[in-house]
Amino acid sequence: MADATPAPRARSLIHGLDALRRGQPGEVRVTLGHPMENGLRHDGYGNVVPRSIVTRFECRLDDQLVFAADLYTAVAANPYLAFWLKADGPGTLRFDWTGDWGFSHRETRQINPA
Amino acid sequence: MKRATGIALLLVAVSAQAEDNRRSGLQFMSPALQALQRDDAQNPAMLAVQDGEQLWSTAAGSSGKRCADCHGEAPRSMAGVAARYPAWDAAIGGALNLSGRINACRVRHQQANALPGEHADLLALAAYVGLQSRGQPLRPPDDPRLDPLRQQGQVLWSRRLGQLNLACLHCHDQRAGLRLGGATIPQGHATGYPAYRLEWQGLGSLQRRLRGCVTGVRAEPWAPDAPEWLALEAWLAQRAAGMAVETPAVRP
Asked: What is the DSSP letter of B113?
Protein backbone atom coordinates (compact mmCIF):
# COMPACT_ATOMS: atom_id res chain seq x y z
CA MET A 1 0.00 0.00 0.00
CA ALA A 2 1.49 3.29 -1.09
CA ASP A 3 0.61 6.25 1.06
CA ALA A 4 -0.33 8.48 -1.87
CA THR A 5 -4.00 8.18 -1.00
CA PRO A 6 -4.44 8.46 2.74
CA ALA A 7 -7.52 6.85 4.15
CA PRO A 8 -10.15 9.59 4.43
CA ARG A 9 -11.27 11.02 7.75
CA ALA A 10 -14.32 8.99 8.63
CA ARG A 11 -17.38 9.83 10.63
CA SER A 12 -20.76 8.25 10.73
CA LEU A 13 -24.40 8.70 11.63
CA ILE A 14 -26.38 5.89 13.24
CA HIS A 15 -30.14 6.15 13.66
CA GLY A 16 -32.95 3.96 14.86
CA LEU A 17 -31.39 2.33 17.92
CA ASP A 18 -33.58 4.17 20.44
CA ALA A 19 -36.72 2.96 18.67
CA LEU A 20 -35.81 -0.74 18.91
CA ARG A 21 -38.36 -2.90 20.72
CA ARG A 22 -37.43 -6.15 22.43
CA GLY A 23 -38.01 -9.14 20.19
CA GLN A 24 -39.36 -7.05 17.33
CA PRO A 25 -37.60 -6.16 14.11
CA GLY A 26 -36.57 -2.51 13.96
CA GLU A 27 -34.91 -0.51 11.21
CA VAL A 28 -31.33 0.60 11.80
CA ARG A 29 -29.95 3.25 9.46
CA VAL A 30 -26.29 4.09 9.09
CA THR A 31 -24.42 6.64 6.99
CA LEU A 32 -20.67 6.73 6.64
CA GLY A 33 -18.88 9.87 5.48
CA HIS A 34 -16.64 8.58 2.70
CA PRO A 35 -15.88 9.94 -0.82
CA MET A 36 -16.24 6.51 -2.53
CA GLU A 37 -13.75 7.54 -5.19
CA ASN A 38 -14.41 5.07 -7.99
CA GLY A 39 -10.97 5.10 -9.62
CA LEU A 40 -12.32 6.14 -13.02
CA ARG A 41 -11.98 9.90 -12.66
CA HIS A 42 -9.06 12.11 -13.63
CA ASP A 43 -7.76 15.09 -11.73
CA GLY A 44 -7.02 18.48 -13.25
CA TYR A 45 -3.63 17.24 -14.44
CA GLY A 46 -5.00 14.22 -16.27
CA ASN A 47 -3.86 11.71 -13.67
CA VAL A 48 -6.22 8.94 -12.65
CA VAL A 49 -7.52 9.46 -9.11
CA PRO A 50 -6.84 6.13 -7.40
CA ARG A 51 -9.81 4.08 -6.33
CA SER A 52 -10.68 4.54 -2.69
CA ILE A 53 -13.96 2.95 -1.69
CA VAL A 54 -15.53 1.16 1.23
CA THR A 55 -15.74 -2.50 0.26
CA ARG A 56 -17.43 -4.09 3.25
CA PHE A 57 -19.84 -3.21 6.03
CA GLU A 58 -20.56 -5.52 8.94
CA CYS A 59 -22.82 -5.17 11.94
CA ARG A 60 -22.41 -7.44 14.93
CA LEU A 61 -24.65 -7.84 17.96
CA ASP A 62 -22.58 -9.24 20.83
CA ASP A 63 -20.00 -10.55 18.33
CA GLN A 64 -22.63 -12.32 16.25
CA LEU A 65 -22.89 -11.12 12.67
CA VAL A 66 -26.40 -9.76 12.05
CA PHE A 67 -25.92 -7.84 8.81
CA ALA A 68 -23.19 -7.45 6.18
CA ALA A 69 -22.91 -5.77 2.81
CA ASP A 70 -20.32 -5.69 0.04
CA LEU A 71 -19.97 -2.30 -1.62
CA TYR A 72 -18.65 -1.58 -5.09
CA THR A 73 -17.62 1.39 -7.18
CA ALA A 74 -21.15 2.26 -8.31
CA VAL A 75 -22.15 3.21 -4.77
CA ALA A 76 -22.30 6.99 -4.30
CA ALA A 77 -20.32 8.97 -1.75
CA ASN A 78 -21.36 8.78 1.89
CA PRO A 79 -22.93 5.32 1.63
CA TYR A 80 -26.25 4.94 3.45
CA LEU A 81 -27.46 1.51 4.51
CA ALA A 82 -30.70 0.55 6.20
CA PHE A 83 -31.37 -2.90 7.60
CA TRP A 84 -33.67 -4.65 10.05
CA LEU A 85 -32.50 -5.90 13.37
CA LYS A 86 -34.21 -7.96 16.04
CA ALA A 87 -32.69 -7.90 19.50
CA ASP A 88 -34.07 -9.93 22.39
CA GLY A 89 -32.41 -7.87 25.07
CA PRO A 90 -29.63 -5.41 25.93
CA GLY A 91 -26.44 -5.83 23.99
CA THR A 92 -23.50 -4.25 22.21
CA LEU A 93 -23.74 -3.35 18.56
CA ARG A 94 -20.53 -3.03 16.59
CA PHE A 95 -20.45 -1.40 13.18
CA ASP A 96 -17.40 -1.96 10.99
CA TRP A 97 -16.61 -0.39 7.66
CA THR A 98 -13.48 -1.50 5.81
CA GLY A 99 -12.12 -0.48 2.45
CA ASP A 100 -9.24 0.41 0.17
CA TRP A 101 -5.91 1.74 1.43
CA GLY A 102 -6.37 0.07 4.78
CA PHE A 103 -9.49 2.06 5.54
CA SER A 104 -11.38 0.98 8.60
CA HIS A 105 -13.90 2.68 10.84
CA ARG A 106 -15.63 1.22 13.87
CA GLU A 107 -18.53 2.46 15.96
CA THR A 108 -19.84 0.74 19.06
CA ARG A 109 -23.25 1.35 20.61
CA GLN A 110 -25.00 -0.11 23.62
CA ILE A 111 -28.63 -0.96 22.98
CA ASN A 112 -31.34 -1.65 25.47
CA PRO A 113 -34.58 -2.36 23.60
CA ALA A 114 -37.65 -1.43 25.59
CA MET B 1 -69.04 44.90 10.96
CA LYS B 2 -66.81 42.38 12.62
CA ARG B 3 -67.88 39.84 10.05
CA ALA B 4 -67.18 42.21 7.16
CA THR B 5 -63.67 42.82 8.51
CA GLY B 6 -63.22 39.09 8.81
CA ILE B 7 -64.21 38.54 5.19
CA ALA B 8 -61.99 41.42 4.08
CA LEU B 9 -59.04 39.91 5.95
CA LEU B 10 -59.81 36.54 4.45
CA LEU B 11 -59.85 38.07 0.97
CA VAL B 12 -56.49 39.76 1.62
CA ALA B 13 -55.08 36.46 2.86
CA VAL B 14 -56.40 34.56 -0.15
CA SER B 15 -55.09 37.10 -2.64
CA ALA B 16 -51.71 37.19 -0.89
CA GLN B 17 -51.61 33.43 -1.11
CA ALA B 18 -52.60 33.51 -4.76
CA GLU B 19 -49.86 36.00 -5.57
CA ASP B 20 -47.06 33.97 -4.05
CA ASN B 21 -46.07 31.48 -6.73
CA ARG B 22 -42.64 30.97 -5.31
CA ARG B 23 -41.55 27.36 -4.95
CA SER B 24 -38.48 26.09 -3.22
CA GLY B 25 -36.13 23.84 -5.18
CA LEU B 26 -37.37 21.05 -2.93
CA GLN B 27 -40.73 21.07 -4.71
CA PHE B 28 -39.08 20.50 -8.08
CA MET B 29 -37.36 17.31 -6.92
CA SER B 30 -38.46 13.69 -7.09
CA PRO B 31 -40.24 12.24 -4.02
CA ALA B 32 -37.22 10.03 -3.31
CA LEU B 33 -34.90 13.01 -3.27
CA GLN B 34 -37.33 15.01 -1.16
CA ALA B 35 -37.32 12.18 1.36
CA LEU B 36 -33.53 12.32 1.43
CA GLN B 37 -33.68 15.94 2.53
CA ARG B 38 -36.61 15.61 4.92
CA ASP B 39 -35.27 12.63 6.85
CA ASP B 40 -32.29 13.60 8.99
CA ALA B 41 -31.35 9.94 9.25
CA GLN B 42 -30.84 9.86 5.48
CA ASN B 43 -29.70 13.40 4.71
CA PRO B 44 -25.95 13.05 4.04
CA ALA B 45 -25.42 16.71 4.93
CA MET B 46 -26.04 15.74 8.55
CA LEU B 47 -22.50 14.33 8.56
CA ALA B 48 -21.25 17.88 8.09
CA VAL B 49 -23.71 19.18 10.67
CA GLN B 50 -22.22 16.72 13.14
CA ASP B 51 -18.76 18.06 12.29
CA GLY B 52 -20.04 21.61 12.75
CA GLU B 53 -21.43 20.76 16.16
CA GLN B 54 -18.02 19.49 17.23
CA LEU B 55 -16.23 22.51 15.76
CA TRP B 56 -18.62 24.78 17.66
CA SER B 57 -17.17 23.41 20.90
CA THR B 58 -13.55 23.19 19.76
CA ALA B 59 -11.02 25.93 20.50
CA ALA B 60 -9.57 27.63 17.42
CA GLY B 61 -6.79 30.16 16.86
CA SER B 62 -4.29 31.65 19.28
CA SER B 63 -7.05 32.96 21.55
CA GLY B 64 -7.96 29.40 22.47
CA LYS B 65 -11.63 30.41 22.38
CA ARG B 66 -14.44 28.19 21.20
CA CYS B 67 -17.57 29.48 19.43
CA ALA B 68 -19.48 28.22 22.45
CA ASP B 69 -17.47 30.42 24.86
CA CYS B 70 -19.15 33.57 23.52
CA HIS B 71 -22.31 32.22 21.89
CA GLY B 72 -23.24 29.42 24.28
CA GLU B 73 -25.49 26.67 23.03
CA ALA B 74 -26.07 27.08 19.30
CA PRO B 75 -29.68 25.79 19.24
CA ARG B 76 -30.62 28.74 21.45
CA SER B 77 -28.20 31.50 20.46
CA MET B 78 -28.17 30.79 16.71
CA ALA B 79 -31.90 30.26 16.22
CA GLY B 80 -33.05 32.45 13.35
CA VAL B 81 -29.59 33.92 12.78
CA ALA B 82 -28.89 32.36 9.39
CA ALA B 83 -32.25 33.64 8.12
CA ARG B 84 -30.99 37.22 8.43
CA TYR B 85 -27.89 37.03 6.22
CA PRO B 86 -26.27 38.70 4.28
CA ALA B 87 -26.15 41.44 6.90
CA TRP B 88 -24.27 44.68 7.39
CA ASP B 89 -21.13 44.55 9.49
CA ALA B 90 -20.24 47.89 11.04
CA ALA B 91 -16.63 46.91 11.81
CA ILE B 92 -15.70 46.21 8.21
CA GLY B 93 -18.16 48.76 6.83
CA GLY B 94 -19.64 46.26 4.42
CA ALA B 95 -21.98 43.33 4.02
CA LEU B 96 -21.15 39.77 5.09
CA ASN B 97 -22.82 36.48 4.37
CA LEU B 98 -22.96 33.78 7.02
CA SER B 99 -19.63 32.24 6.03
CA GLY B 100 -18.10 35.72 5.97
CA ARG B 101 -19.45 36.32 9.44
CA ILE B 102 -17.97 33.04 10.72
CA ASN B 103 -14.62 33.98 9.19
CA ALA B 104 -14.80 37.50 10.65
CA CYS B 105 -15.47 35.93 14.05
CA ARG B 106 -12.52 33.59 13.61
CA VAL B 107 -10.14 36.43 12.74
CA ARG B 108 -11.46 39.00 15.20
CA HIS B 109 -12.27 36.95 18.26
CA GLN B 110 -10.49 33.63 17.92
CA GLN B 111 -7.33 35.07 16.32
CA ALA B 112 -7.53 32.26 13.81
CA ASN B 113 -7.05 32.36 10.05
CA ALA B 114 -9.97 32.92 7.73
CA LEU B 115 -10.99 29.70 5.97
CA PRO B 116 -11.38 29.45 2.19
CA GLY B 117 -14.96 29.48 0.91
CA GLU B 118 -15.32 25.75 0.27
CA HIS B 119 -13.29 24.57 3.27
CA ALA B 120 -15.01 21.59 4.90
CA ASP B 121 -14.85 23.19 8.36
CA LEU B 122 -16.39 26.46 7.18
CA LEU B 123 -19.19 24.62 5.37
CA ALA B 124 -19.75 22.43 8.43
CA LEU B 125 -20.05 25.42 10.77
CA ALA B 126 -22.33 27.25 8.33
CA ALA B 127 -24.51 24.15 8.01
CA TYR B 128 -24.68 23.73 11.79
CA VAL B 129 -25.58 27.39 12.34
CA GLY B 130 -27.99 27.28 9.39
CA LEU B 131 -29.76 24.23 10.81
CA GLN B 132 -30.76 26.26 13.87
CA SER B 133 -32.94 28.40 11.57
CA ARG B 134 -34.51 25.53 9.66
CA GLY B 135 -38.20 26.11 9.07
CA GLN B 136 -38.00 29.80 9.91
CA PRO B 137 -38.84 32.36 7.23
CA LEU B 138 -35.95 34.18 5.55
CA ARG B 139 -35.84 37.67 6.99
CA PRO B 140 -33.43 39.89 5.06
CA PRO B 141 -32.49 42.80 7.37
CA ASP B 142 -34.49 45.96 6.96
CA ASP B 143 -31.24 47.88 6.55
CA PRO B 144 -30.94 50.61 3.88
CA ARG B 145 -27.16 50.16 3.82
CA LEU B 146 -27.77 46.81 2.09
CA ASP B 147 -29.99 48.32 -0.60
CA PRO B 148 -27.23 49.21 -3.10
CA LEU B 149 -25.94 45.65 -2.85
CA ARG B 150 -29.39 44.17 -3.42
CA GLN B 151 -29.92 46.46 -6.38
CA GLN B 152 -26.59 45.41 -7.84
CA GLY B 153 -27.65 41.81 -7.36
CA GLN B 154 -30.96 42.39 -9.07
CA VAL B 155 -29.18 44.01 -12.02
CA LEU B 156 -26.83 41.02 -12.25
CA TRP B 157 -29.83 38.68 -12.08
CA SER B 158 -31.23 40.38 -15.19
CA ARG B 159 -27.98 40.84 -17.11
CA ARG B 160 -27.15 38.53 -20.01
CA LEU B 161 -23.91 36.63 -19.51
CA GLY B 162 -21.55 34.40 -21.42
CA GLN B 163 -21.53 32.81 -24.85
CA LEU B 164 -25.07 31.52 -24.34
CA ASN B 165 -26.11 35.11 -23.63
CA LEU B 166 -28.54 34.18 -20.87
CA ALA B 167 -29.46 36.01 -17.70
CA CYS B 168 -30.45 34.21 -14.51
CA LEU B 169 -34.05 35.30 -15.01
CA HIS B 170 -34.34 33.66 -18.43
CA CYS B 171 -34.22 30.25 -16.82
CA HIS B 172 -35.27 30.79 -13.22
CA ASP B 173 -38.06 33.36 -13.66
CA GLN B 174 -39.29 32.64 -17.17
CA ARG B 175 -38.69 28.91 -17.64
CA ALA B 176 -38.89 27.46 -14.15
CA GLY B 177 -40.55 24.04 -14.18
CA LEU B 178 -39.39 23.31 -17.75
CA ARG B 179 -36.52 20.99 -18.53
CA LEU B 180 -32.89 21.70 -19.21
CA GLY B 181 -31.64 18.40 -20.56
CA GLY B 182 -32.62 15.84 -17.95
CA ALA B 183 -33.02 18.37 -15.15
CA THR B 184 -36.02 20.39 -14.07
CA ILE B 185 -35.26 24.11 -13.87
CA PRO B 186 -36.09 25.40 -10.38
CA GLN B 187 -37.00 28.97 -9.52
CA GLY B 188 -33.60 29.45 -7.98
CA HIS B 189 -34.47 30.33 -4.41
CA ALA B 190 -31.38 29.98 -2.24
CA THR B 191 -33.11 28.67 0.87
CA GLY B 192 -31.01 25.66 1.75
CA TYR B 193 -27.32 26.53 1.56
CA PRO B 194 -24.84 25.17 2.31
CA ALA B 195 -26.53 22.31 0.48
CA TYR B 196 -25.62 18.74 -0.31
CA ARG B 197 -25.66 18.31 -4.07
CA LEU B 198 -25.69 14.86 -5.55
CA GLU B 199 -23.70 16.24 -8.47
CA TRP B 200 -20.96 17.33 -6.06
CA GLN B 201 -21.28 14.27 -3.84
CA GLY B 202 -20.77 16.71 -1.01
CA LEU B 203 -21.68 19.94 0.70
CA GLY B 204 -21.12 23.23 -1.12
CA SER B 205 -21.78 26.92 -0.73
CA LEU B 206 -24.23 29.11 -2.61
CA GLN B 207 -21.29 30.72 -4.36
CA ARG B 208 -20.22 27.36 -5.71
CA ARG B 209 -23.75 26.78 -7.00
CA LEU B 210 -23.85 30.21 -8.64
CA ARG B 211 -20.44 29.55 -10.17
CA GLY B 212 -21.86 26.41 -11.74
CA CYS B 213 -24.58 28.47 -13.42
CA VAL B 214 -22.14 31.18 -14.55
CA THR B 215 -19.81 28.65 -16.19
CA GLY B 216 -22.92 26.84 -17.46
CA VAL B 217 -23.82 29.80 -19.66
CA ARG B 218 -20.14 29.86 -20.66
CA ALA B 219 -19.22 33.04 -18.89
CA GLU B 220 -16.02 33.54 -16.94
CA PRO B 221 -16.85 33.42 -13.24
CA TRP B 222 -15.89 36.36 -11.05
CA ALA B 223 -12.99 35.95 -8.63
CA PRO B 224 -13.96 34.12 -5.42
CA ASP B 225 -13.81 37.33 -3.37
CA ALA B 226 -15.55 39.51 -5.97
CA PRO B 227 -18.48 41.62 -4.68
CA GLU B 228 -20.78 40.25 -7.41
CA TRP B 229 -21.34 36.97 -5.53
CA LEU B 230 -22.39 38.75 -2.37
CA ALA B 231 -24.63 41.09 -4.37
CA LEU B 232 -26.41 38.12 -5.95
CA GLU B 233 -26.73 36.45 -2.55
CA ALA B 234 -28.24 39.62 -1.05
CA TRP B 235 -30.72 39.89 -3.92
CA LEU B 236 -31.62 36.21 -3.68
CA ALA B 237 -32.27 36.58 0.05
CA GLN B 238 -34.61 39.48 -0.71
CA ARG B 239 -36.26 37.53 -3.53
CA ALA B 240 -36.90 34.56 -1.24
CA ALA B 241 -37.93 36.65 1.78
CA GLY B 242 -40.53 34.81 3.84
CA MET B 243 -39.71 31.38 2.43
CA ALA B 244 -38.58 28.76 4.93
CA VAL B 245 -34.91 28.06 5.55
CA GLU B 246 -34.12 24.46 4.54
CA THR B 247 -30.45 24.25 5.50
CA PRO B 248 -28.95 21.72 5.04
CA ALA B 249 -30.86 21.02 1.83
CA VAL B 250 -30.31 18.20 -0.66
CA ARG B 251 -30.31 19.12 -4.33
CA PRO B 252 -29.81 17.03 -7.48
From this structure: P
Phi-psi region of A23 (alpha: psi -120 to 50; beta: other; left: phi over 0): left
Q: How far is A44 from chain B (nearest CA, A)?
A: 16
Name every residue whose Cβ is closer than 8 Å to that of residue B46 and which is 6 or more positions away in sequence.
A13, A31, B40, B248
- Determine, for residues A16 and B202 on separate chains, whether the beta-carbon distance falls below 8 Å: no
Q: How many domains does chain B have?
A: 1
Enclosing domain of residue B151: 2-6+21-251
Q: Can you give the pTM of this predicted structure?
A: 0.88
Contact B44 A31 (CB under 8 A): yes
> What SS3 state is found at A91?
strand
How far does the CA of residue B196 sit from the closest CA of chain A (Å)?
Answer: 11
Name the least confident of A94-98, B4-8, B147-151, B203-207: B4-8
pLDDT at res. B179: 94
| Cβ–Cβ below 8 Å for A76 and B198 | yes
| B156 lies in some domain | yes
Residue B18 has pLDDT above 70, yes or no: no
Rounded CA separation A29/B112 (Å): 37
B213 part of the active site: yes
Tens digit of pLDDT for each residue in B48-84? Answer: 999 999 999 999 999 999 999 999 999 999 999 999 9
> ipTM of this model?
0.81
Binary contact (A80, B44; C-beta < 8 A): yes
Which B residues in the span 160-199 are in contact with A, Cβ-Cβ below 8 Å? 198
**Which one-letter DSSP state was computed for residue B83?**
G
Mutant choice from A13, A17, A73 vs B, greatest count of B C-beta within 10 A: A13
Q: Which of A14, A2, A1 is nearest to A111 (CA)?
A: A14
Chain A residue numbers with beta carbons less than 8 Å from the beta carbon of B198 are: 76
Other beta carbons within 10 angstroms of residue A26's beta carbon come to 17
Four-way CATH pick for A27-111: 3.30.1490.20, 2.60.40.10, 1.10.8.100, 2.40.10.10:
2.60.40.10
| CATH number of the CATH domain containing B38 | 1.10.760.10
Q: Is a pLDDT exceeding 70 seen at residue B12? A: no
